[in-house]
Specification:
Helix content is 21%, strand content 34%. It has 213 residues and is α/β, with parallel strands linked by helices. β8, α5 and β9 form a beta-alpha-beta unit.
């Protein structure tokens, strides 16, 4: 059995499948495959989506869709692509406190005119049965709360929600860990753990937080 990163320690408890919003290139695919989980990956950037599709060739239970997920259908956004020392990531928001934690990160380019869809609408349009997915993973660089709001009643069907968030506003208009705590609490979730992976003393941290019902 492969060794799971600490934030994915919950995977052995997932019974059916995972919806992963903010796929990037599907780095976690091996973890999901280890437990035979079906996976829906959502990634809006064309180049990263192509890489994702290529990486999933040997994983027939994992599907990729090029979609931007927010809280509105038909919203139009500019995606800001950035590069830091470890990876490339994308946000619909401009930097805020992110500059304090990652001073080396730069916006490399912007991709305007990208249209969004809610998770609820996406699932209905693709005729994906929500019963088949009991875990939701969101890594959308500040837009996590928008994804949750757009999920609507689908949230009642998840047993696990894993998000990446900071305890301060990392992106202008983006959400914080406290806001996620409050919103998910309305759906019966409580935070099980928050594992910081980068911090700055006196300013704040960014972490992976798991919520369970």
């Amino acid at each position: 059995m492969i060794e799971l990163p600490p934030e994915y320690a919950f995977l052995p408890e997932v019974k059916h499948g995972v919806i992963h919003v903010g796929a990037n290139s599907g780095q976690e695919r091996i973890y999901y495959a280890e437990f035979g989980l079906r996976v829906v990956w959502l990634e809006p950037i064309p180049r990263k989506f192509a890489e994702l599709v290529s990486n999933l060739t040997d994983y027939p239970e994992q599907q990729a869709f090029r979609r931007l997920i927010t809280d509105v259908d038909g919203g139009e956004y500019t995606l800001h692509l950035q590069r830091n020392e470890e990876q490339q990531s994308t946000s619909i928001f401009q930097f805020s406190g992110h500059k304090q934690l990652f001073p080396w990160a730069k916006h490399r380019l912007s991709l305007p005119g990208v249209h969004s869809v809610t998770l609820a609408t996406f699932m209905a349009c693709e005729q994906l049965n929500p019963v088949g997915y009991d875990a939701l993973v969101i890594d959308t660089e500040g837009a996590e709360l928008l994804v949750l709001k757009g999920a609507g009643n689908l949230l009642h069907g998840f047993d696990f929600v894993l998000v990446e968030a900071g305890d301060v506003e990392l992106y202008a208009g983006g959400c914080t860990l406290g806001e996620l705590d409050a919103y998910l609490g309305n759906y019966g979730f409580q935070q099980e753990y928050a594992i910081p992976f980068h911090s700055k003393p006196g300013f704040g941290f960014i972490c992976n937080a798991l919520y369970t019902r």
